[in-house]
């Protein structure tokens, strides 16, 4: 039993922290998507009124690159100096799923 106790503490704390990060990430991502939707609607309205012209191909390419770099940065920040391993990983998945 003494052999398991440190792992239970680490898994519990790591799981809790992972759950909190996953839950918050899901909530923030929802807000970001709402903002992106509003911005897209406004841009499309300006295009509809012939007040603006948008070339979507370069925008889509840059957005894809931005998402790729943001996700890499997110994981670097979240996993920096974290030795909580499996508990954290499971917690972040469960938190993101629940959020």
What would your notes on this structure say?
The protein has 99 residues and is mostly helical. It has one domain. The chain contains 3 helices and no strands. The chain has helices at residues 5-48, 56-79, 85-98. Helix 1 packs across helix 3. The longest helix is centred in the first third of the chain and has 44 residues, at 5-48. The two termini are 34 Å apart. The mean pLDDT is 84.
List its traits.
elongated; mainly alpha; 99 residues
Contiguous low-pLDDT stretches (5 residues minimum) are: none
Percent in strands: under 5%
What is the share of helical residues? over 70%
Instruction: Kindly report the average pLDDT value.
Output: 84
In total, the number of strands is: 0
Order of helices and strands: HHH
Shape: elongated
* Class by SSE composition: mainly alpha
Radius of gyration: 20 Å
* Integer count of domains: 1
The main sheet comes to: none
Distance between the termini: 34 Å
Number of helical regions: 3
């Amino acid at each position: 039993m003494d052999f398991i106790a440190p792992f239970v503490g680490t898994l519990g704390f790591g799981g809790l922290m992972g759950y909190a990060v996953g839950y918050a990430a899901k909530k923030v991502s929802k807000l970001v998507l709402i903002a992106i939707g509003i911005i897209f609607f406004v841009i499309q309205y300006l295009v509809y009124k012939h007040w603006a012209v948008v070339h979507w191909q370069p925008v889509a390419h840059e957005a894809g690159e931005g998402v790729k770099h943001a996700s890499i940065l997110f994981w670097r920040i979240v996993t920096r100096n974290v030795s909580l391993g499996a508990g954290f990983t499971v917690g972040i998945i469960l938190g993101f799923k629940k959020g």
